[in-house]
């Protein structure tokens, strides 16, 4: 029998100690849960991934045609990327992740077995800082300035609660206009937030994009016996 708690890997990174953990929760009939921590912060838990899936479903659900080229910023446990790959219209998915151990965990099969990104030939991992790429030549190192059908982002906790202060400028009108330059004319930018949509950021998005929506994603929190709410912003 697997132990109730295991640290599957722990490595030092430029942002602090990063660890992947697996636990079984007795209160939930020994449900197996994977967690990623950065220092003392919980970045993601497989127990709560409804909003990460909604990010892909809502962002890509806006697109027409087929042969889509898509970027996902932030790999984590892989739920957004896996949801994107369920769209048969998707041709190529570039997943940008700044922390190399996270990519390694997926390649080694250390994350939940329901997430199998490495076996899909459409999916490419890119070890890089999403925000640096957004400020420079874009997300395809082989084709600078390349435009995409959709860019889906799940890295910071929210538009005003960042993992690193250097991310702040991205969420300004100037930063978003630069991102928009890497989208096709009918392209979509979608953003996950730990918090429900905020009017202040919707106003910033509206200064850059034509059609802007904020969605509240509610999901059960069995540990607290309550309902939690995250947000997804969709702009095109």
Number of helices: 6
Can you tell me the CATH superfamily?
Vaccinia Virus protein VP39
Using the 3D structure, state the CATH architecture.
Answer: 3-Layer(aba) Sandwich
Stretches where pLDDT is under 50 for at least 5 consecutive residues are: none
Main-sheet strand order equals 7-6-5-8-9-11-10
How many DSSP E strands? Answer: 11
CATH topology: Rossmann fold
Largest sheet: 7 strands, mixed
Determine the fraction of residues in helical runs and give it as a percent range.
Answer: 10-25%
- Strand composition percent: 35-45%
Shape: globular
Provide mean pLDDT, rounded: 94
Number of domains: 1
- Radius of gyration based on Cα positions: 17 Å
Order of helices and strands: EEEEHEHEHEHEHEHEE
Span of the ends, CA to CA: 49 Å
Descriptive tags:
4-stranded antiparallel β-sheet, 21% helix, 236 residues, Rossmann fold, 37% strand, alpha/beta, 7-stranded mixed β-sheet
Task: Provide an overview of this structure.
With 236 residues, the chain is of the alpha/beta class. It has a single domain (48-235), classed as Vaccinia Virus protein VP39 (Rossmann fold). 21% of the residues lie in helices and 37% in strands. The chain is built from six helices and eleven strands. The chain has helices at 50-60, 79-85, 100-108, 130-135, 173-180, 199-206; strands at 5-13, 16-25, 31-38, 41-45, 68-73, 90-97, 123-127, 148-153, 183-193, 212-221, 226-235. A seven-stranded mixed beta sheet has the order 7-6-5-8-9-11-10. A four-stranded antiparallel beta sheet has the order 1-2-3-4, covered by helices on one side. It is globular and about 50 Å long. 37% of the residues are buried. The mean pLDDT is 94.
